[in-house]
Write a structure and sequence with these properties.
With 123 residues, the protein is mostly beta strands. Strands 2, 4, 5, 6, 9, 10 and 11 form a seven-stranded mixed sheet that branches. It has a four-stranded antiparallel sheet with strand order 1-3-8-7, with no helix packed on it.
C-alpha cells in the first residue's frame, strides 16, 4: 500500500519560512519522480516543484529563488523548503509520486497523492 504523508504546514507571517516534508512508503522511492503541488481556494491545482528520479529539479517561476525541493533516499522523504513566503503562497500543499522517473508538471500524470497540508501566510 502506497502512502505519502505530508507534514510541516502551518501559519506564518509574510517573509517567513516553512519546510514541508513528505514521507513515502510502498513505492520504489529513489526511482519515482516526486512533486509538490498546491491548490488555493477557487483555483486549479498547480505544480510548485518537482525532483526527478535522477535528482533533476524544476520549479514554477513564481517560487524560483524562494522554494527548494530536495529528496533524501535514505529516509524516503522529499522536502520543500519555502523561504520569503508571500500571502499568495497560501494554499493546501500536496506531495505526489510519479512512477515515471522523469517527472512532469502535469498533475494528472502523478500516480499517488498525499492528503495535503495547509500553508497560510499572513500579511
Amino acid at each position: 500500500q502506497v502512502q505519502l504523508i505530508e507534514s510541516g504546514g502551518g501559519l506564518v507571517q509574510a517573509g517567513g519560512s516553512l519546510r514541508l516534508s513528505c514521507a513515502a512508503s510502498g513505492i520504489i522511492f529513489n526511482f519515482n519522480a516526486m512533486g509538490w503541488f498546491r491548490q488555493a481556494p477557487g483555483k486549479q491545482r498547480e505544480m510548485v516543484a518537482l525532483v526527478s528520479g535522477g535528482g533533476a529539479t524544476n520549479a514554477v517561476d513564481s517560487v524560483k529563488g524562494r522554494f527548494t525541493i530536495s529528496r533524501d533516499g535514505a529516509k524516503n522523504t522529499v522536502y520543500l523548503q519555502m523561504n520569503s513566503l508571500k500571502p499568495e503562497d497560501t494554499a493546501v500543499y500536496y506531495c505526489a509520486a510519479d512512477r515515471n522517473p522523469i517527472g512532469t508538471i502535469d498533475a494528472y500524470e502523478y500516480d499517488y497523492w498525499g492528503q495535503g497540508t495547509q500553508v497560510t501566510v499572513s500579511s
